[in-house]
């Protein structure tokens, strides 16, 4: 049976698709007017725009132009933490705003819309997850960044897709067993690479789960020279076809570094903006979603990421509405596994 939360998330997705097919209701002049107002307000409010690769390119460009950051969730967290601005405007989904708040509670963190969430976060409610962890006390608890503050607070480690393999390898070397949550596809990939004993939560990303191996094989017939780039939240059969598997930053780097001129890309298509900058002149092709005759729920673009736009960023700056608040005790507990990830990441570089 669907919960109230599931139902309202479905409604949000449906509303998003209904809107997406309407003509863009802003003229070029209005777009420019919004951009200038946002730039002005960022200065006046001592604020910094931090945007995810999956947000609208117009926001990615604004973040770049204003000294903010466009990146994956690990780098967004690091950047927001180190930046001197007193306000962070986090264009992404709710767990990213919460992560920013947990790492820098003294800063004001606002989001273009607090309703932008994530199927992985929704699919891992704290009560059920906590009971699962309690039932397996001999396991180290490793959770993906795409989780609520409460789930992070229950974890020993938080990881992003850019560092998951190294963290779990580190735990495997110590002979540990792990509970992994919530993305089962990323978990399967990490388990296979590391050989660790893993208990897996049954969550999935509604965008990456749509990619289909058969569709990619068909596309390879049309573009035989194309390399396949895959985010490991995709199903196993899709990961197996990849020339490069990795986090958003890692597959952007692969697009730059591989000699191929064409790429079939299995992740959110908003990433093409940064891929084109990193590898100018190369061609990027969306990996197919949905089987033949099937309806597609996401069509390679996250409905929640798509809730971030110029109007909502401007509104967030003007009103301060949709500020992120996290309970103080949760901040203390959730910060430990997050900081462990950041320290571990720094140790790999050092
Ligand atoms: S793309 Fe998937 S993992 Fe990322 S926010 Fe959207 S639903 Fe969550």
Automatic annotation (TrEMBL):
InterPro entries given in the database record: NadA, NadA_sf
Q: Name one GO cellular component term.
A: cytosol
Q: In which pathway does it act?
A: Cofactor biosynthesis; NAD(+) biosynthesis; quinolinate from iminoaspartate: step 1/1
| Gene3D superfamilies assigned | NadA-like
Q: Which UniProt keywords apply?
A: 4Fe-4S, Coiled coil, Cytoplasm, Iron, Iron-sulfur, Metal-binding, Pyridine nucleotide biosynthesis, Transferase
Coiled coil (UniProt feature): 24-51
Q: Name one GO molecular function term.
A: quinolinate synthetase A activity
A Pfam family this chain is assigned to: NadA
Tell me which Gene Ontology terms the entry assigns under biological process: 'de novo' NAD+ biosynthetic process from L-aspartate
* Required co-factors: [4Fe-4S] cluster
Could you say which EC number(s) this protein's record lists?
2.5.1.72
Q: What name does UniProt use for this protein?
A: Quinolinate synthase
The scientific name of the source species is: Neptuniibacter caesariensis
């Amino acid at each position: 049976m669907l919960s109230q939360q599931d139902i309202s998330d479905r409604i949000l997705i449906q509303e998003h698709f209904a809107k997406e097919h309407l003509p863009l209701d802003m003229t070029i002049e209005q777009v420019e007017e919004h951009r200038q107002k946002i730039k002005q307000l960022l200065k006046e409010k001592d604020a910094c725009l931090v945007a995810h690769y999956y947000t609208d390119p117009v926001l990615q460009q604004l973040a770049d132009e204003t000294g903010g950051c466009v990146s994956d969730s690990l780098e967004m967290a690091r950047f927001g933490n180190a930046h001197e601005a007193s306000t962070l405007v986090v264009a992404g989904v709710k767990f990213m705003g919460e992560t920013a708040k947990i790492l820098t509670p003294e800063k004001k963190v606002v989001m273009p819309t607090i309703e932008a969430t994530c199927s992985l976060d929704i699919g891992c409610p704290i009560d059920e997850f906590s009971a699962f962890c309690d039932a397996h006390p001999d396991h180290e608890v490793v959770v993906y960044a795409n989780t609520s503050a409460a789930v992070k607070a229950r974890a020993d480690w938080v990881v992003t897709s850019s560092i998951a393999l190294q963290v779990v390898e580190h735990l495997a070397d110590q002979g540990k067993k792990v509970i992994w949550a919530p993305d089962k596809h990323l978990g399967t990939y990490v388990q296979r690479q590391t050989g660790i004993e893993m208990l897996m939560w049954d969550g999935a990303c509604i965008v990456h789960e749509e990619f289909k191996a058969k569709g990619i094989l068909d596309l390879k017939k049309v573009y035989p020279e194309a390399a396949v780039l895959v985010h490991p939240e995709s199903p196993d059969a899709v990961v197996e076809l990849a020339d490069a598997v990795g986090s958003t930053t890692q597959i952007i780097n692969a697009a730059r570094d591989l000699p191929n001129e064409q790429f079939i890309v299995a992740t959110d298509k908003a990433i093409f903006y940064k891929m084109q900058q990193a590898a100018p002149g190369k061609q990027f092709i969306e990996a197919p979603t949905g089987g033949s005759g099937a309806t597609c729920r996401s069509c390679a673009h996250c409905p929640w990421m798509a809730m971030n736009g110029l109007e909502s960023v401007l509104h967030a700056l003007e009103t301060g509405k949709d500020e992120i608040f996290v309970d103080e005790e949760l901040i203390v507990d959730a910060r430990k596994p997050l900081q462990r990830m950041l320290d571990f990441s720094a140790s790999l570089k050092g």
